[in-house]
Amino acid sequence: MSTESGVDRGRLAELAARERAAFAERNPRSAAAYQRSDHLFGRVPMTWMNKTAAGFPLYVATARGNRITDVDGHDYLDFALGDTGAMAGHSPAPVVEAVTRRLATLGGATTMMPTEDAAIVAAELARRFTVPYWSFALTATDANRWAIRLLRAVTGRSKILFHSYCYHGSVDESLIVVGPDGNGRSREGNVGAPTDVTNTSRVAEFNDLAGLERELAHGDVAAVLMEPALTNIGIVLPEPGYLAGVRELTRKYGTYLINDETHTFSAGPGGATAFWGLAPDVVTIGKAIGGGIPVGAYGLSEDLAAALTGRTDLDLVDMGGVGGTLAGNPVSMAATRACLQEVLTDAAFAGMIGTATAFAAGIRKIIETYGLPWSVSQLGARVEYRFADPAPRNGTESAAKADAELEDFLHVYLANRGVLLTPFHNMALMSPDTTAGDVERHHEIFNEALHELTS
Ligand code: PMP
Q1: Phi and psi of 8, rounded to 5°?
Q2: Using an 8 Å Cβ cutoff, are 110 and 329 in contact?
């Protein structure tokens, strides 16, 4: 029986079982390591690592550039790149050097004292993302959390608006979706919500300016926290005029605009903000900028920084709810400086985006060859296919087109032949090390998979 995704479910089930069995046979050491992890909650260091298509995770032995070797000795072309954390490639030499110099030569992993690297990183972020004043966290989640607090403080408003099926880290306020009745409600699976999410948040569909205006008109929204393109429910690109409309409406209703560039950084050296010429009040980012070392950052506009400066009622120096002990530590700052200045450079992005364009063109052609009703979206160095054509216009539509069984099959099929995709979606990210040959190798296997699936 063929379904919406255009594949025969019987054939899919049969091939998926074959590939899972091959995976188990191919990876005895990973399987044994998983079995030995009795004292890890869920057998993994972090519960998300159980998001595997084949029942247990592959254990990493070595990782360099866009290559990974697992403990069973298999080599992989890595298009997952740590779900963007390793967009710079694994252990890029300038980052390794900078971190080694900091740790081994100079010493001091964490001191609660500044190093000069931080101001250099801030200036570089300001050059790229337009907002002038930066502060650091260890994760993008925390950068978002602290930005939210600052904007609540400045506006005196309680709510934050999100797009349905967005992801901004484990931020309580963001776990809201548009329900079937058109109203906001808690996202399915929301763990231990501190309060009903509609007390803290509002929600609109991406690409829906009328819906956004309806919500902002309540006058209680401190900030819209958004990705300029959704990237965590497939890639959902903004329609012409949408982002300009968001900026106009946020200004009209006195609401601040935060661009979360953690993933949309793939659009170019200054992320989607520079690529589309956007004018957010705040930019948040994390993951890739540290070249693999934990870091998060938020940048504030001139006006916003001025509004916060001199507010003696806000404790920004101690326990007021903004900041963290290890944030801005010397190692994160050294790594981020090296990564931005020497690895994820303007020139590197040109190469990565060229590679991604070839990746997108190739999979489009293969999907077309087999007449599958799928679509391909590209955001700079990042490419994703979705089992729907035309591409979904918002998060709810995109969520409805998920096909976990098909996705898992493709992931395992590729992994069994030495290619890794991001476990959470059909996303492929190009690092500065990813070559045209790597893209071709992916396409050969992807073609084989679709051939088998449709024959
Ligand atoms: N923002 C976006 C857009 C993300 O995709 C993510 C993580 N995938 C985060 C924030 C949170 O990053 P972290 O888990 O490193 O805090």
Answers
A1: -80, 120
A2: yes
- Distance between CA 36 and CA 22 in Å, rounded? 21
Quote ipTM for the complex: 0.99
CA of 358 to the centre of ligand 1 (A): 27
Asked if residues 204 and 161 have their Cβ atoms less than 8 Å apart, the reply is: yes
> What would the DSSP string read from start to end of 74-132?
-EEEESSGGGGTTTT-BS-HHHHHHHHIIIIII--S--SS--THHHHHHHHHHHHHS--
Provide DSSP, 292-343. Answer: TS--EEEEE-HHHHHHHTT-TTS-TTTTSS---TTTT-HHHHHHHHHIIIII
Distance (angstroms) between ligand 1 centre and the Cα of 67 equals: 23
CB 153 within 8 A of CB 347: no
* The token pair that represents 83 in the structure block: 């779900």
> Which pair of tokens denotes residue 220?
């209680």
Nearest residue CA, atom 11 of ligand 1?
169
For tokens 């030495």, name the residue.
418
Question: Mutate which of 146, 175, 263, 282 to test ligand 1's pocket (most atoms within 8 Å of Cβ)?
Answer: 263
Instruction: Out of 171, 262, 379, give the residue to mutate to test ligand 1, the one with the largest number of ligand atoms within 8 Å of its CB.
Output: 262
Q: Is the pLDDT of residue 424 over 90?
A: no
Which residue's CA is the nearest one to ligand 1's atom 9?
169
Query: What would the two tokens of residue 2 be?
Result: 């063929």
User: Which ligand 1 atom minimizes the distance to the CA of 141?
Assistant: 16
If DSSP codes are grouped into helix, strand and coil, which group holds residue 107?
coil
Domains of the chain, first to last = 9-78+346-454 (3.90.1150.10), 93-343 (3.40.640.10)
**Beta-carbon contacts of residue 407 (< 8 Å; ≥ 6 apart):** 53, 425, 426
In the structure, which protein residues have their CB atom closer than 6 angstroms to any atom of ligand 1?
83, 139-141, 167-169, 227, 232, 260, 262-263, 286-287
- Which atom, in ligand 1's list, is nearest to the CA of 287? 15
pLDDT for 168-210, tens place per residue?
A: 999 999 999 999 999 999 999 999 999 999 999 999 999 999 9
pLDDT tens, 46-71?
999 999 889 999 999 999 999 999 99
The one-letter code for the residue type at 16 is: A
Sequence-distant (6+) residues with CB within 8 A of 396 are 164, 165, 177, 178, 205
pTM as predicted: 0.98
